Amino acid sequence: KKLQLSYSDRAELPNLHPPASKLLKIMEEKQSNLCVSSDVTNSEELLQYSRINSNLQSVHVTTTFIQKVQALAEKHDFLIFEDRKFADIRNTVKHQYEGGLYQISSWSHIVNAHAVPGPGVLKGLSAAGKPLGRGCLLIAQMSSQDHWLLLFCVAQVQMAEEHSDFVMGFICGSKLTERPEFIHMTPGVQMQAGGDLLGQQYTTPEEVVYNKGSDVIIVGRGILAASDRAEAAELYRKSGWDAYRKRVGQ
Ligand code: 5FU
């Protein structure tokens, strides 16, 4: 089995995207490839929960608590990933990203987009996000049962490569390209493989990072529903990190 480059080696690659290199560095420093998905509807709860050791947060924004989250991100050195899943025409996504109620581009380091509308979605987002040093993940595969994206996965990789000045990686189930500049992030992760009752499918950190070659595990309820969230987060961090070390042969 071929040895893989470490996160810190990849952080030094030339022409790497600013948020990608920052993310790779933080992961190595914190020894954590865990992205906590903060799917809570109460902003106070989210602020409290942000103190646990994670690299980034996936925030479904409901109120104007952004400044507090930004301050926490700075203090605890994590990146903010708004899981907004943009999927409209070039002009509209630009407005959705930088304007409106949430002004996402002003505070979220990373966003994601569906490739369905074609490259225009990336051009629109890039126009607003690139000058601010933001990055985007293309949603290449989903963890939901019977999703359709596998049908055009190859086209998505090509689209990402053609827009690698703004696309920093993928939401996916497994590694899609050997190009080390791209970061692969995988949702649908729990300690035990299985699913929820609504079509979500789960695989383990070891399977995702070691066998499937993905870089980051995205965990929501595995941590949120635990009685001790900090303890659960540490469990996922360790499991994801051990799988990474095994992968790079450390
Ligand atoms: F793009 C995707 C996907 O394919 N599957 C997902 O589960 C995104 N997600 C998000 O990851 C989903 O919207 C939740 O915010 C999170 C998974 O949460 P869970 O509680 O770990 O199932």
From TrEMBL:
In the C-terminal section; belongs to the OMP decarboxylase family. Its EC number is 2.4.2.10, 4.1.1.23. The active site is at D83, K85, D88. It comes from the Eukaryota. This is Uridine 5'-monophosphate synthase. Residues 33-236 form the Orotidine 5'-phosphate decarboxylase domain. The chain holds residues 232 to 481 of 484 of the full protein. Pathway: Pyrimidine metabolism; UMP biosynthesis via de novo pathway; UMP from orotate: step 2/2; Pyrimidine metabolism; UMP biosynthesis via de novo pathway; UMP from orotate: step 1/2. Substrate binds at S143, Q200, G220, R221. GO terms for molecular function: orotate phosphoribosyltransferase activity; orotidine-5'-phosphate decarboxylase activity. Transmembrane segments: none annotated. GO terms for biological process: 'de novo' pyrimidine nucleobase biosynthetic process; 'de novo' UMP biosynthetic process. Keywords: Decarboxylase, Glycosyltransferase, Lyase, Multifunctional enzyme, Pyrimidine biosynthesis, Signal, Transferase.
